[in-house]
Design goal:
Blueprint lengths: L5 H4 L5 H20 L16 E4 L4 E9 L12 E10 L3 E8 L2 E6 L4 E3 L7 E3 L6 E6 L8 E8 L3 E10 L22 H25 L14
Parallel strand pairs: 2-10
Antiparallel strand pairs: 1-2, 2-3, 3-7, 3-8, 4-6, 4-9, 5-8, 9-10
Protein backbone atom coordinates (compact mmCIF):
# COMPACT_ATOMS: atom_id res chain seq x y z
CA UNK A 1 0.00 0.00 0.00
CA UNK A 2 1.53 3.34 -0.99
CA UNK A 3 2.32 5.79 1.76
CA UNK A 4 0.50 9.13 1.88
CA UNK A 5 2.64 12.22 2.24
CA UNK A 6 0.95 13.97 5.16
CA UNK A 7 3.22 17.03 4.78
CA UNK A 8 1.92 17.54 1.23
CA UNK A 9 -1.70 17.31 2.40
CA UNK A 10 -1.22 19.91 5.13
CA UNK A 11 0.66 22.29 2.85
CA UNK A 12 -2.59 23.56 1.22
CA UNK A 13 -2.27 21.61 -2.03
CA UNK A 14 -5.91 20.69 -2.62
CA UNK A 15 -6.36 20.69 -6.45
CA UNK A 16 -9.91 19.32 -6.39
CA UNK A 17 -11.21 21.99 -4.03
CA UNK A 18 -9.36 24.71 -5.94
CA UNK A 19 -10.85 23.61 -9.26
CA UNK A 20 -14.36 23.49 -7.76
CA UNK A 21 -13.92 27.02 -6.43
CA UNK A 22 -12.81 28.30 -9.84
CA UNK A 23 -15.84 26.73 -11.50
CA UNK A 24 -18.16 28.18 -8.88
CA UNK A 25 -16.84 31.67 -9.63
CA UNK A 26 -16.65 31.27 -13.41
CA UNK A 27 -20.16 29.93 -14.00
CA UNK A 28 -22.02 32.95 -12.52
CA UNK A 29 -19.69 35.23 -14.46
CA UNK A 30 -20.58 33.51 -17.72
CA UNK A 31 -24.25 33.63 -16.81
CA UNK A 32 -23.90 37.34 -16.13
CA UNK A 33 -22.47 37.85 -19.61
CA UNK A 34 -25.36 35.92 -21.12
CA UNK A 35 -27.89 38.01 -19.19
CA UNK A 36 -26.58 41.26 -20.60
CA UNK A 37 -28.60 43.80 -22.58
CA UNK A 38 -28.43 41.66 -25.73
CA UNK A 39 -29.16 38.34 -24.06
CA UNK A 40 -31.90 36.25 -25.65
CA UNK A 41 -33.64 35.95 -22.28
CA UNK A 42 -34.41 39.69 -22.37
CA UNK A 43 -35.76 39.69 -25.90
CA UNK A 44 -39.25 38.80 -27.12
CA UNK A 45 -39.26 35.45 -28.89
CA UNK A 46 -42.41 34.88 -30.95
CA UNK A 47 -43.59 31.33 -31.35
CA UNK A 48 -41.82 29.55 -34.19
CA UNK A 49 -45.13 28.02 -35.21
CA UNK A 50 -48.75 28.74 -34.43
CA UNK A 51 -51.31 26.23 -33.28
CA UNK A 52 -51.50 22.93 -35.15
CA UNK A 53 -53.76 19.90 -35.12
CA UNK A 54 -54.71 16.83 -37.12
CA UNK A 55 -58.47 16.15 -37.08
CA UNK A 56 -60.16 12.78 -37.40
CA UNK A 57 -61.70 13.89 -40.67
CA UNK A 58 -58.30 14.15 -42.32
CA UNK A 59 -57.90 17.93 -41.92
CA UNK A 60 -54.48 19.21 -40.86
CA UNK A 61 -54.11 22.81 -39.66
CA UNK A 62 -50.61 24.24 -39.27
CA UNK A 63 -49.12 27.56 -38.14
CA UNK A 64 -52.48 29.06 -37.15
CA UNK A 65 -52.35 32.38 -35.31
CA UNK A 66 -54.12 35.71 -34.92
CA UNK A 67 -52.22 38.83 -35.96
CA UNK A 68 -52.27 41.27 -33.08
CA UNK A 69 -51.09 44.87 -32.71
CA UNK A 70 -47.54 46.16 -32.55
CA UNK A 71 -45.64 45.32 -29.34
CA UNK A 72 -46.94 47.10 -26.22
CA UNK A 73 -50.14 48.10 -28.03
CA UNK A 74 -53.70 46.78 -27.98
CA UNK A 75 -56.38 46.07 -30.56
CA UNK A 76 -59.47 47.86 -29.23
CA UNK A 77 -62.79 46.19 -28.53
CA UNK A 78 -65.08 46.48 -31.55
CA UNK A 79 -62.12 46.25 -33.94
CA UNK A 80 -60.88 43.53 -36.26
CA UNK A 81 -58.07 40.98 -36.38
CA UNK A 82 -56.78 38.67 -39.12
CA UNK A 83 -56.27 34.91 -38.83
CA UNK A 84 -53.48 33.17 -40.75
CA UNK A 85 -52.95 29.43 -41.20
CA UNK A 86 -52.28 26.56 -43.59
CA UNK A 87 -54.78 23.75 -44.25
CA UNK A 88 -54.37 20.34 -45.87
CA UNK A 89 -56.95 17.58 -46.17
CA UNK A 90 -56.74 13.88 -46.90
CA UNK A 91 -59.93 14.28 -48.89
CA UNK A 92 -61.42 17.29 -50.60
CA UNK A 93 -63.34 19.47 -48.16
CA UNK A 94 -64.60 23.02 -47.70
CA UNK A 95 -64.20 25.52 -44.87
CA UNK A 96 -67.74 26.84 -44.64
CA UNK A 97 -67.48 29.24 -41.69
CA UNK A 98 -65.45 30.16 -38.61
CA UNK A 99 -66.43 31.34 -35.13
CA UNK A 100 -64.38 32.74 -32.23
CA UNK A 101 -64.99 33.37 -28.54
CA UNK A 102 -63.59 36.91 -28.62
CA UNK A 103 -65.37 38.17 -31.74
CA UNK A 104 -69.00 38.85 -32.56
CA UNK A 105 -68.54 37.22 -35.97
CA UNK A 106 -65.88 35.93 -38.35
CA UNK A 107 -65.85 36.89 -42.02
CA UNK A 108 -64.46 34.75 -44.83
CA UNK A 109 -63.53 37.18 -47.58
CA UNK A 110 -64.50 35.67 -50.90
CA UNK A 111 -66.88 33.18 -49.29
CA UNK A 112 -66.27 29.54 -48.26
CA UNK A 113 -62.77 28.20 -48.86
CA UNK A 114 -62.29 25.01 -50.87
CA UNK A 115 -59.65 22.62 -49.55
CA UNK A 116 -58.44 20.11 -52.19
CA UNK A 117 -57.12 16.64 -51.44
CA UNK A 118 -53.61 16.51 -50.01
CA UNK A 119 -52.16 15.38 -53.34
CA UNK A 120 -53.12 18.75 -54.79
CA UNK A 121 -51.25 20.69 -52.13
CA UNK A 122 -52.11 22.83 -49.12
CA UNK A 123 -54.30 25.90 -48.87
CA UNK A 124 -51.97 28.55 -47.50
CA UNK A 125 -53.96 31.38 -45.96
CA UNK A 126 -50.71 33.06 -45.03
CA UNK A 127 -51.32 36.58 -46.31
CA UNK A 128 -50.15 39.15 -46.61
CA UNK A 129 -53.86 40.10 -46.54
CA UNK A 130 -56.01 37.88 -44.29
CA UNK A 131 -58.94 35.93 -45.71
CA UNK A 132 -60.28 35.07 -42.27
CA UNK A 133 -61.18 38.17 -40.25
CA UNK A 134 -62.44 38.40 -36.69
CA UNK A 135 -64.93 41.27 -36.56
CA UNK A 136 -66.53 43.04 -33.63
CA UNK A 137 -63.92 42.09 -31.04
CA UNK A 138 -65.66 41.85 -27.68
CA UNK A 139 -62.49 42.46 -25.69
CA UNK A 140 -59.15 44.23 -26.33
CA UNK A 141 -56.45 41.95 -27.73
CA UNK A 142 -52.68 42.06 -27.36
CA UNK A 143 -49.73 39.81 -28.06
CA UNK A 144 -49.31 36.82 -25.77
CA UNK A 145 -53.02 36.08 -25.40
CA UNK A 146 -54.99 33.35 -27.15
CA UNK A 147 -58.30 33.21 -29.01
CA UNK A 148 -60.49 30.10 -29.09
CA UNK A 149 -61.42 29.59 -32.75
CA UNK A 150 -63.67 26.91 -34.24
CA UNK A 151 -63.40 26.01 -37.93
CA UNK A 152 -66.56 24.54 -39.47
CA UNK A 153 -65.79 22.14 -42.34
CA UNK A 154 -68.40 20.58 -44.62
CA UNK A 155 -67.08 17.01 -44.22
CA UNK A 156 -64.66 17.01 -41.29
CA UNK A 157 -67.04 18.91 -39.03
CA UNK A 158 -65.93 21.34 -36.33
CA UNK A 159 -62.27 21.74 -35.34
CA UNK A 160 -61.44 23.96 -32.34
CA UNK A 161 -58.05 25.47 -31.58
CA UNK A 162 -56.62 28.05 -29.17
CA UNK A 163 -54.72 30.38 -31.49
CA UNK A 164 -51.86 32.51 -30.15
CA UNK A 165 -51.94 36.26 -30.81
CA UNK A 166 -48.66 37.25 -32.42
CA UNK A 167 -47.46 40.88 -32.44
CA UNK A 168 -47.37 42.85 -35.68
CA UNK A 169 -43.56 42.81 -35.68
CA UNK A 170 -40.53 40.58 -36.36
CA UNK A 171 -41.34 37.95 -39.02
CA UNK A 172 -44.99 39.04 -38.89
CA UNK A 173 -44.23 42.66 -39.79
CA UNK A 174 -44.96 42.13 -43.51
CA UNK A 175 -48.50 40.87 -42.86
CA UNK A 176 -51.36 43.29 -43.36
CA UNK A 177 -54.12 44.03 -40.86
CA UNK A 178 -57.70 43.55 -42.08
CA UNK A 179 -58.93 46.31 -44.41
CA UNK A 180 -61.32 48.74 -42.80
CA UNK A 181 -64.94 48.13 -43.80
CA UNK A 182 -66.39 50.65 -46.26
CA UNK A 183 -69.23 52.64 -44.66
CA UNK A 184 -72.61 52.16 -46.30
CA UNK A 185 -74.10 55.34 -47.79
CA UNK A 186 -77.46 56.28 -46.28
CA UNK A 187 -79.91 58.94 -47.48
CA UNK A 188 -79.94 62.08 -45.35
CA UNK A 189 -83.25 63.34 -43.88
CA UNK A 190 -83.25 66.39 -46.18
CA UNK A 191 -82.76 64.20 -49.26
CA UNK A 192 -85.55 61.88 -48.17
CA UNK A 193 -87.89 64.81 -47.49
CA UNK A 194 -87.19 66.41 -50.86
CA UNK A 195 -87.79 63.06 -52.58
CA UNK A 196 -91.16 62.70 -50.85
CA UNK A 197 -92.09 66.29 -51.74
CA UNK A 198 -91.18 65.63 -55.37
CA UNK A 199 -93.39 62.55 -55.44
CA UNK A 200 -96.32 64.49 -53.96
CA UNK A 201 -95.85 67.30 -56.49
CA UNK A 202 -95.78 64.79 -59.34
CA UNK A 203 -99.00 63.23 -58.13
CA UNK A 204 -100.73 66.63 -57.96
CA UNK A 205 -99.51 67.57 -61.43
CA UNK A 206 -100.82 64.28 -62.83
CA UNK A 207 -104.22 64.78 -61.20
CA UNK A 208 -104.47 68.33 -62.56
CA UNK A 209 -103.59 67.20 -66.06
CA UNK A 210 -106.22 64.51 -65.87
CA UNK A 211 -108.88 67.00 -64.73
CA UNK A 212 -108.09 69.59 -67.44
CA UNK A 213 -107.79 66.96 -70.13
CA UNK A 214 -111.40 65.71 -69.63
CA UNK A 215 -114.22 67.42 -71.59
CA UNK A 216 -116.21 70.06 -69.70
CA UNK A 217 -120.02 70.40 -70.01
CA UNK A 218 -119.61 73.79 -71.79
CA UNK A 219 -117.42 72.32 -74.45
CA UNK A 220 -119.86 69.61 -75.47
CA UNK A 221 -121.47 70.05 -78.95
CA UNK A 222 -124.94 71.64 -78.87
CA UNK A 223 -127.67 70.03 -80.98
CA UNK A 224 -128.29 71.69 -84.34
CA UNK A 225 -131.77 73.25 -84.90
CA UNK A 226 -134.33 71.07 -86.64
CA UNK A 227 -135.50 72.63 -90.00
Amino acid sequence: MPRINRRWLHSGHRPLKTAALVCAVAIPALAGCEAGANAPALQFHPAANGAATVAAGGITINDAFVLGPAPNQTLPAGGQAGVFLSITSANADQLESVSADKAASVRLTGGPINVPAAADGAVNLTGPVPRIILTGLNTPLMGGQTVAVTFHFANAGDISLDLPIEPHAYEYATLAPPPKPTPTATASPSTSASTKAGKKSAKKSGAHASATGSASPGSSASPSPTP
